[in-house]
């Protein structure tokens, strides 16, 4: 899979007050990509496309270069204490993604150029909590690896936390474009995670992302570069012959990592869930999806901000958790399972 290149770029005038903003403007001009000005991402109007589906797909390949105005970080439990906002949006087309609703009608990708201000705010959070370690998640609202070959904001963050005493960085990706990150001075303080799943889930629900084999190749590179390595199995989804499908997943994973020294290998397990607003958006954007979205087959679970989600019923969730934990125990007995949710 080729690295992401936007079809259309919007630049906020304030972004050009920052070195990264000017650098990106020149880069896209040299690439002959159409550049438009916008006072704010909220003011973007008239994206190309005749139908809603066309407009949606073009929006997913549109990049907005802007300034992060709100420097209050969201919490990011259970993954980390805070979400560090380097970017918003994703070029992937995963049918189940919660960004379907959180980004609403504006699914374009935003990258923020005031990275030093963002790092200064991260330092304040670390200072407030020291001597406790403060973890920051860089992939809450985007797949940051998918655009970092263009911006290098993530690489700067890796080196910022590499030099910190009380900070740790975490992010997860479905993309394999990691070569520029391999020489970053991470000092073991960044956990590099890859999202993995069964063949059925990747084939049917993860278009526009790197293949499983590409992700595994990238994982080997990352581990060889000394990063603590992790995998997120998400969403764990009860498809036909799901037990065999997930067993094969861990079988292939074990084969790919055979012979590697992975003292800090971790797994995070997240069952499939959806909200009522997400269901409407998913069915609108991916009308032929095979994703099972039948509320009657699920348990309703209250979420923060008053928006509940539909998760598997207790018996099924327990079966999912015990099955996946068993596979990890078999293939990776020394790995840490950080949580199931």
Q: Concise description?
A:
By secondary structure, the chain is α/β, with parallel strands linked by helices.
* Nearest-integer average pLDDT: 94
DSSP summary, beta strand count: 15
CATH class: Alpha Beta
Q: What is the straight-line distance between the termini?
A: 31 Å
Overall description:
- The chain has 341 residues and is of the alpha/beta class.
- The chain has a single domain (67-340), classed as pyruvate-formate lyase- activating enzyme (Alpha-Beta Horseshoe), CATH 3.80.30.30.
- Helix content is 35%, strand content 21%.
- The protein is built from 11 helices and 15 strands.
- The strands form 3 sheets. The chain has an 8-stranded mixed β-sheet with strand order 4-5-8-9-10-11-12-15, with helices on one face. The chain has a 5-stranded mixed β-sheet with strand order 2-1-3-7-6, covered by helices on one side. A two-stranded antiparallel sheet has the order 13-14.
- Helix 9 runs parallel beside helix 11 (314-331).
- The longest helix has 18 residues, at 314-331.
- The model has no long low-confidence stretch (mean pLDDT 94).
């Amino acid at each position: 899979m080729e690295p992401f290149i936007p079809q259309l770029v919007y630049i906020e005038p304030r972004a050009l007050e920052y070195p990264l903003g000017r650098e990106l403007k020149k880069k896209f001009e040299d690439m002959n990509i159409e550049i438009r000005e916008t006072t704010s991402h909220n003011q973007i109007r008239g994206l190309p496309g005749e139908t809603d589906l066309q407009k949606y797909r073009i929006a997913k390949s549109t990049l907005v270069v802007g300034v992060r105005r709100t420097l209050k970080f969201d919490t990011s439990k259970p993954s980390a204490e805070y979400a560090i906002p380097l970017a918003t949006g994703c070029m992937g087309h995963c049918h189940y993604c919660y960004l379907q609703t959180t980004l609403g009608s504006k699914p374009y990708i935003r990258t923020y150029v005031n990275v030093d201000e963002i790092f200064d705010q991260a330092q304040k959070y670390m200072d407030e909590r020291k001597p406790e370690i403060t973890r920051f998640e860089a992939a809450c609202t985007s797949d940051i690896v998918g655009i970092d070959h263009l911006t290098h904001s993530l690489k700067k963050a890796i080196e910022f936390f590499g030099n910190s005493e009380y900070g740790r960085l975490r992010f997860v990706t479905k993309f394999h474009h990691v070569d520029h990150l391999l020489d970053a001075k991470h000092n073991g303080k960044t956990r590099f995670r890859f999202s993995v799943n069964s063949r059925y889930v990747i084939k049917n629900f993860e278009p526009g992302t790197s293949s499983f084999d590409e992700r595994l190749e990238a994982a080997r590179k990352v581990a060889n570069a000394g990063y603590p390595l992790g995998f997120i199995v998400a969403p764990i989804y009860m498809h036909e012959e799901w037990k065999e499908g997930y067993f094969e997943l861990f079988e292939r994973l074990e084969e790919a990592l055979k012979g590697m020294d992975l003292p800090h290998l971790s797994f995070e397990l997240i069952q499939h869930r959806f909200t009522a607003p997400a269901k409407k958006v998913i069915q609108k954007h991916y009308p032929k999806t095979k994703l099972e979205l039948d509320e009657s087959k699920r348990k309703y679970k209250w979420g923060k901000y008053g928006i509940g989600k539909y998760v598997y019923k207790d018996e099924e969730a327990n079966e999912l958790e015990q099955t996946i934990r068993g596979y990890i125990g078999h293939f990776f007995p020394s790995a840490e399972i950080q949580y199931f949710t």
